């Protein structure tokens, strides 16, 4: 559950960086809105994680007072912003993954998790749709946009396999009927992304030779430290401050 | 606190809570928006439990609504306990006819129909949304995301007026 929460939290932070940087003001709003949906999901999941842990940690403690090695998000969401095409490639893959994941969690034995899934499923369907439209528009656009969209698909490639790794926690959660095995989501996610990529006249790149791993065990890439510094510094500089 | 409330006072308080305006779109009350799930007043202890459901997971208005409910209840010298529940998930189907009409008069197109439950096909959407100003169906989508999580931006091709649409979810 912490993995899902951290994926949403960290990606919300990255999407927030697009505000005032997107190609048009409507996209500032769109990416801000998507980030806000993810932040809402992260808050509910972090609160639930704190309850289950039983050590009295709330959503703020978990978001602001954990160190890098305690975060369980995949490497895909912590990578720095690329160009807009690359962001749409990342969003398409991530939203498609979340869509299948939340669909599987509707029947979770944990009632909070199934409620979050039911709520979030509608939201991520919209995110996936939004990214899909842009991938088609850019891929099937000018030679320049086509080339950069294709480059975007290639840039995110090494970080995709990790989404479908079955680590010890997810195997345990699946056995308990709480979670779903990430590897079972693979085919449906690839099928959806492939359909979009085909319509966009792009090609899905082959498996990359290098692939990321370790996010779910708390091993992160270099950009993660900088991201957390930005995310956490106000809370840590002013402990206990409130509005 | 031993406050004894009459049935009439309870009904009045419930109505006051239901009439609280949405902080982002003040023309619609939280009851017409369909986010008030339950109000129970314990007349003996003076505890008022209100259950609401957010429109979107990250909707920032939830905090403002919670505060407004607590404030309304405290004005009557009672204690409020506001719960947020995610399940079952909110849908635009719960919005009242009165709410839809106030949105339209305010210049926001009310949610029309529900999204298909199955996979959404790729490609440009061809959904028809009526312009809240002139009623024309000749409108186009400008952006799928508007100023708040629940709205999208559209433009009327007949009267050229841009407007917001409450997204159907």
TrEMBL record, chain A:
Enzyme Commission no: 1.14.13.149
Enzyme class label: oxidoreductase
Coiled-coil annotated spans: none
The UniProt record lists the keyword 4Fe-4S: no
MF terms in GO: phenylacetyl-CoA 1,2-epoxidase activity
The organism's place on the tree of life at top rank: Bacteria
Keywords (A to Z) from UniProt: Oxidoreductase
Name of the protein: Phenylacetate-CoA oxygenase subunit PaaC
Gene expressing this chain: paaC
Automatic annotation (TrEMBL), chain B:
Protein name, as recorded: Phenylacetate-CoA oxygenase subunit PaaJ
Family matches, as SUPFAM superfamilies: Fe-S cluster assembly (FSCA) domain-like (SSF117916)
NCBIfam families xrefs: PA_CoA_Oxy4 (TIGR02159)
Annotated ranges, domain PaaD zinc beta ribbon: 126-167
MIP18 family-like domain location: 13-74
PANTHER family recorded: 1,2-PHENYLACETYL-COA EPOXIDASE, SUBUNIT D-RELATED (PTHR42831:SF3), FE-S PROTEIN MATURATION AUXILIARY FACTOR YITW (PTHR42831)
Gene3D superfamilies, sorted: Fe-S cluster assembly (FSCA)
């Amino acid at each position: 559950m912490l993995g899902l929460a951290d994926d949403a939290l960290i990606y919300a932070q990255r999407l927030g960086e697009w505000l005032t940087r997107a190609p048009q003001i409507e996209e500032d709003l769109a990416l801000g809105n998507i980030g806000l949906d993810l932040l809402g999901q992260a808050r509910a999941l972090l609160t639930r994680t704190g309850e289950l842990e039983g050590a009295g940690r709330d959503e703020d403690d978990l978001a602001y007072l954990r160190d890098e090695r305690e975060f369980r998000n995949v490497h895909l969401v912590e990578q720095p912003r690329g160009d807009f095409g690359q962001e749409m490639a990342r969003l398409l893959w991530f939203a498609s993954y979340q869509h299948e994941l939340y669909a599987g969690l509707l029947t979770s034995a944990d009632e909070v998790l199934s409620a979050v899934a039911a709520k979030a499923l509608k939201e991520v369907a919209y995110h996936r749709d939004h990214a899909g439209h842009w991938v088609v528009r850019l891929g099937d656009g000018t030679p320049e946009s086509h080339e950069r969209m294709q480059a975007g698909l290639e840039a995110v490639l090494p970080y995709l396999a990790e989404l479908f790794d079955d680590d010890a926690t997810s195997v345990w959660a699946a056995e308990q009927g709480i979670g779903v095995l990430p590897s079972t989501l693979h085919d449906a996610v690839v099928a959806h992304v492939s359909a979009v990529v085909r319509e966009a006249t792009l090609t899905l790149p082959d498996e990359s030779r290098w692939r990321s791993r370790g996010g779910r065990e708390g091993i992160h890439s270099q950009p993660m430290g900088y991201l957390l510094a930005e995310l956490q510094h106000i809370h840590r500089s002013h402990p206990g401050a409130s509005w | 606190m031993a406050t004894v409330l009459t049935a009439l006072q309870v009904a009045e308080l419930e109505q006051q809570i239901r009439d609280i305006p949405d902080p982002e779109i003040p023309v619609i009350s939280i009851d017409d928006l369909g986010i008030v799930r339950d109000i129970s007043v314990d007349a003996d202890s003076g505890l008022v439990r209100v259950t609401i459901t957010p429109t979107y997971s990250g909707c920032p208005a939830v905090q403002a609504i919670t505060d407004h409910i607590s404030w309304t209840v405290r004005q009557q010298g009672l204690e409020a306990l506001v719960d947020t529940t995610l399940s079952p998930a909110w849908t635009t189907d719960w919005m009242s006819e009165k709410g839809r009409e106030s949105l339209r008069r305010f210049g926001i197109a009310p949610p029309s129909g529900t999204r298909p439950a199955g996979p959404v096909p790729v490609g440009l959407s061809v959904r028809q949304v009526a312009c809240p100003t002139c009623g024309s169906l000749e409108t186009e989508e400008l952006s799928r995301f508007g100023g708040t999580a629940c709205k999208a931006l559209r433009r009327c091709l007949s009267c050229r007026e841009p407007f917001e649409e409450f997204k159907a979810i």
